[in-house]
Amino acid sequence: MTERYGYVVGVDTGLVGALQEADHLLRGLAVELGAAEDVLGCTHHVRDGGRPRMALSFAVPSERAARTALRRLAEGEFGAALGAELHGPAELAAGAARAAAEHAARTGGRAVLYPGSEALTGTVTVARLLAVSAVDRVAVLGSPDGPEPERQIVTRDHVRPEWRDGQLVLTTMPAAGGTLVPFEVPDPTPCCADH
Q: What DSSP assignment string belongs to 111-145?
């Protein structure tokens, strides 16, 4: 389902924030770039010796769409990359290039926008999740084996698989009643929030 997304544009706005902020930025940029309907969009942690931050990547099905996105992004004050073509401040351009490279190699990136993601609401079986979305595999935290196809996943309407070894993998954890839930929670409590 993801093979058609062969052109990857990276973006680094310098965002230092939570995953929710990165998700919001990614969705907003996808709309702005006119790619919200046909895109595989990911967030990436950038730790390059500078301050840790979030970068984004957008995989699109055509070179034309990628070049259009790059041109629009290059007009901003952030880093953008498509292959060896870099735009923006050096540090941000390098972060954008890293995000694009990880996504293109399918070795890193947390998918927010991907085919079938809108169908992953409520409770679905592992088999259904794999059939209707771009997710290639479901892993269970602490288990060497994947779950049975009929096992229920309570999505909490928040399913964020990650690229690992060429596959889009959703990590889950056991929950009440023998169900599974995605490892990433929709509304994480910030560190030290209760102090």
A: EEE-TTGGG--SEEEHHHHHHHSS--EEEETT-SS
